[in-house]
Specification:
Length: 88
């Protein structure tokens, strides 16, 4: 096979997905690439998804040291925007 896609994958060592992401969505590619570089990036994304999916109010603090994530803090305000206790 002499497909351009296969040659690009073999030349750069990246998958077709990574190549397309880098070509069409460079900012998203850079963020996605951090998962290989920084093991705590998954914790950051998990915290963001938790806040979004639960419609939470609070903050996520990312503390860097030497260009890498040192730790991630997630703080939720449990009573924000609520007029009464929610039933479980």
């Amino acid at each position: 096979m002499t497909s351009t896609k296969i040659l690009i994958t073999q030349k750069t060592g990246e998958t077709k997905f990574a190549e397309d992401l880098r070509t069409y969505f460079p900012d998203l590619y850079q963020f996605w690439s951090l998962f290989k570089f920084d093991p705590f990036m998954e914790e950051v994304l998990s915290g963001i998804l938790d806040m979004v999916n639960t419609d939470a109010y609070g903050k996520i603090e990312i503390v860097y040291q030497a260009g890498r994530i040192n730790y991630v803090n997630q703080q939720k305000q449990l009573t924000a925007k609520k007029s009464h206790k929610l039933d479980k």
